[in-house]
């Protein structure tokens, strides 16, 4: 007896990201939300805060946020893996001291002193990466220790003194505009180049895909062929190098090399990265959201300073935004799970062998 083959039923896709239309997956993201918030806050500040819409506002906004923008690039990659680096501000201070001492005492030119400072930053990052990646120590404990170590070396080398004797052409270059009269300083050029490089590395290479896999599950990433130890090592090396580069800029921007330069800067960097949509638990984040997060914090700080608000009030506002950015993803996940349970609790109509709902014959006769 020949059996009729039942037509195959279409199985709905279970992967959550593909359960939504493309426009929703592209637009309804934390990164887009931060960009929209940046546009709204900037527009409101321009219209309501006196002197905020002047050309000097954007200029000093970029000058002040440049170190954070630079360090936030490699920090994003580190946090995506589920790790963290709290020693970045100490590397900035150590780099600043080295530039000052090498130029003043050793007589080296600024480019050579800057190169040596960046190489020392690479060594500092390599120490962090070795202890975290190959030894397997927790990055929080390691970088808290190196935070104190690098800062102690910086203060020990220079003490309470400051080096301020820098060539005027280099201090002017750190504050120079790309075009005379524009609001964009020259420091944006290396930042944009680094942004392109890190965006390509994170979003368009197998190395970047391995970073996300490590953040989601480092053990599974290891069995899938990702060299977890080496990846973490090189990420910390990048963080040390870029932090040292930011230290060179910091020194020339303010014309002063001190052991306590950039104290507390690591908290601003981490706050900006998390506000930009990077998950503190790893496995999620994008660089365009991080850049928007840095600029959002900068705009809020600038607008509140122009309104004569104290530093404490500014810190309260930024801290509240940071807490909200950390809590919001968890709340959204819980709301989605509750909505999914509600839909699954609704009994589905019975279906026959062909996958179609049975038809009431009496109802059909009435039609």
Structure, described:
The chain has 367 residues and is mostly helical. It has a single domain, classed as ABC transporter involved in vitamin B12 uptake, BtuC. The protein has helices at residues 22-27, 30-48, 55-80, 88-104, 110-134, 139-158, 168-175, 188-203, 206-216, 218-223, 228-254, 265-275, 287-306, 311-345, 361-366. The protein is globular.
Count of DSSP helices? 15
Low-confidence stretches: 11-15
Q: How can the largest sheet be summarized?
A: none
Report the end-to-end length measured between terminal Cα atoms: 36 Å
What's the pLDDT, averaged over the residues? 84
DSSP E strands, number = 0
Shape-level CATH architecture: Orthogonal Bundle
CATH class: Mainly Alpha
What coarse outline follows from CA principal-axis ratios?
A: globular
Structurally, the number of domains stands at 1
* Secondary-structure element order, N to C: HHHHHHHHHHHHHHH
Q: What is the helical fraction, as a range of percent?
A: 55-70%
Q: Which fold name corresponds to the CATH topology?
A: ABC transporter involved in vitamin B12 uptake, BtuC
Structural class: mainly alpha
Q: What percent strand?
A: under 5%
Taking all Cα atoms into account, the compactness measure Rg is 26 Å
Pfam family, one: BPD_transp_2
Protein name: Autoinducer 2 import system permease protein LsrD
GO molecular function, one term: transmembrane transporter activity
Organism: Nocardioides flavescens
């Amino acid at each position: 007896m020949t059996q009729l083959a039942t037509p195959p039923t279409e199985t709905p896709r279970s992967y959550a990201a593909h359960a939504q239309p493309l426009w929703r997956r592209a637009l309804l993201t934390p990164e887009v939300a931060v960009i929209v918030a940046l546009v709204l806050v900037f527009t409101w500040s321009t219209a309501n805060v006196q002197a905020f819409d002047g050309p000097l506002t954007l200029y000093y906004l970029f000058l002040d946020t440049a170190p954070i923008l630079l360090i936030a690039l490699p920090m994003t990659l580190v946090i995506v893996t589920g790790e963290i680096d709290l020693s970045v501000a100490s590397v900035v201070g150590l780099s600043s001291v080295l530039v000052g001492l090498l130029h003043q005492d050793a007589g080296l030119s600024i480019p050579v002193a800057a190169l040596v400072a960046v190489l020392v930053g690479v060594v500092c990052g390599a120490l962090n990466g070795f202890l975290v990646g190959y030894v397997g120590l927790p990055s929080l404990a390691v970088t808290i220790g190196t935070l104190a170590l690098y800062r102690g070396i910086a203060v020990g080398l220079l003490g309470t003194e400051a080096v301020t004797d820098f060539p005027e052409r280099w201090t002017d270059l750190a504050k120079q505009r790309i075009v005379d009269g524009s609001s964009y300083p020259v420091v944006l050029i290396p930042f944009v180049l680094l942004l392109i490089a890190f965006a390509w590395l994170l979003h368009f290479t197998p190395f970047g895909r391995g970073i996300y896999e490590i953040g989601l599950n480092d053990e599974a990433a290891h069995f899938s062929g990702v060299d977890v130890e080496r990846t973490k090592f090189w990420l910390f090396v990048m963080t040390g190098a870029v932090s040292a580069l930011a230290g060179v800029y910091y020194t020339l921007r303010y014309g002063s090399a001190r052991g306590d330069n950039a104290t507390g800067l690591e908290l601003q960097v981490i706050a900006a990265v998390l506000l930009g949509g990077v998950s503190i638990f790893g496995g999620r984040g994008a660089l365009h959201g991080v850049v928007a997060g840095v600029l959002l914090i900068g705009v809020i700080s600038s607008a509140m300073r122009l309104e004569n608000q104290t530093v404490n009030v500014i810190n309260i506002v930024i801290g509240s935004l940071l807490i909200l950015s950390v809590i919001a993803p968890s709340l959204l996940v819980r709301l989605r799970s509750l909505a999914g349970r509600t839909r699954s609790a609704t009994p589905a109509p019975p279906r026959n062998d062909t996958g179609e709902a049975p038809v009431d014959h009496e109802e059909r006769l009435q039609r």
